[in-house]
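Narrative of accomplishments. A recurring question from our advisory board has been how the design workflow behaves on a single, concrete structure rather than in aggregate. To address it, we present the structure tokens for one chain from the evaluation set, followed by the sequence designed for it. No filtering or post-editing was applied between the two.
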């Protein structure tokens, strides 16, 4: 394209020749405009990193999951609970499990980025872990069965919920060598998962659910384990339980209340895990969708950190708390130091520790501020209203349509 010479008489221009820019110059100008305009956006996206994960434990037991029951678009990962270990192999626990797994996998049509993992173990299902990890041969049998299980049900990985290595748990067999064998089973699983990923052309996730006690960290090598897993799902709840604690307390405090005799909190657990060698970016903060209930609690400090007794059959999902306790004889109080709510019924002398949308919003902020991997919750059906998941979704994704 030749330069065009404007006539000297063109109004508004000085009495001299004027050259229009060539196509080459226009392209350069446009590219400069594009870079200046969009560079901040690119920088912001790069700095933002991956979206925090939202991990739901789904525990239907003998029930069949129903259409519309799971808000798939608000979840990153589903851990189906639980598979068991029998004869050294992973097996389903209930006849309804295959149908429920198929239901969950089908949710990926609604949310293509959703992953579905099988979780093996749990509090009552961990009795055979110590035997399974004992030798290279026994671990090999288990890992082969896991790969077959994942292929059979078209799953995206495995979550190991061993409660707990080197400790009795719910009356389970345990050994001192559980500590090293716990590490070995993850190392060997990761090696086989890496190999299988090349065949499947998709990612296989390997995660673990872990305790918050100092004893758990003493009986494991989490600094080594973290190298092989995608996330460590820290169960930052049950710090206080009526069956084992003679005084009431926050069962899932975010921060440590100075008045707490045991000085426990999710924040302290996160710090403990980081000191044990687990990077923040691999820590998923566990939160409860249920509460703990104490009876015979004196009306001092609205029942917080007071003597109490277990109440038979009083396990309270958030749905029950919201529908039949909150504003039904129970007053809500806020432990500002711990950033969690609690309920107290002065007439019945009942104390309830739980999480609600306000406390979960603060936990989401903590996850973001501290660069954690995300939030995990136990367990989905405890809040049929979806209010708790909505709070997590808004807090981490800032977009309820996710």
């Amino acid at each position: 394209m030749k330069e065009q010479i404007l006539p000297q008489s063109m109004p508004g221009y000085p009495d001299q020749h004027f050259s229009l820019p060539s196509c080459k110059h226009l392209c350069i100008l446009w590219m400069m405009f594009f870079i200046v305009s969009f560079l901040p956006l690119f920088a912001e996206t790069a700095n933002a990193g991956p979206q925090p994960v939202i991990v739901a434990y789904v525990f239907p037991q003998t029930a069949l999951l129903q259409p519309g029951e799971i808000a798939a678009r608000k979840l990153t990962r589903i851990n189906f609970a639980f598979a068991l270990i029998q004869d050294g192999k992973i097996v389903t626990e209930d006849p309804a499990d295959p149908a429920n797994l198929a239901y969950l996998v089908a949710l990926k049509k609604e949310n293509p980025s959703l992953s579905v993992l099988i979780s093996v173990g749990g509090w009552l299902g961990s009795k055979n872990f110590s035997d399974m990890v004992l030798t290279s041969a026994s671990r090999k049998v288990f890992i082969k069965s896991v790969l077959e299980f994942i292929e059979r049900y078209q799953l995206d990985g495995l979550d190991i919920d061993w409660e707990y290595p080197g400790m009795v748990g719910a009356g389970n067999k345990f050994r001192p060598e559980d500590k090293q064998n716990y590490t070995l089973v993850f190392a060997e699983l990761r090696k086989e998962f890496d190999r299988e990923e090349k065949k499947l052309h998709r990612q296989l996730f390997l995660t673990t659910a872990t305790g918050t006690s100092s004893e758990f960290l003493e009986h494991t090598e989490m600094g080594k384990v973290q190298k092989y897993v995608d996330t460590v799902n820290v169960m930052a709840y049950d710090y206080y339980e009526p069956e084992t604690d003679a005084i009431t307390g926050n069962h899932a405090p975010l921060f440590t209340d100075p008045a707490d005799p045991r000085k426990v909190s999710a924040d302290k657990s996160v710090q403990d895990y980081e000191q044990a060698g687990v990077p923040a970016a691999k820590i998923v903060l566990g939160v409860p969708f249920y509460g703990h209930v104490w009876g015979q609690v004196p009306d001092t400090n609205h029942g917080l950190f007071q003597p109490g007794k277990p109440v038979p059959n009083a396990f309270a999902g958030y749905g029950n708390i919201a529908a039949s306790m909150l504003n039904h004889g129970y007053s809500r109080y806020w432990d500002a130091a711990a950033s969690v709510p609690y309920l107290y019924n002065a007439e019945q002398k009942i104390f309830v520790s739980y999480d609600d949308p306000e406390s979960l919003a603060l936990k989401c902020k903590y996850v973001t501020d501290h660069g954690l991997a995300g939030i995990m919750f136990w367990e989905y059906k405890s809040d049929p209203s979806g209010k708790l998941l909505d709070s997590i979704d808004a807090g981490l994704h800032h977009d309820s349509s996710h």
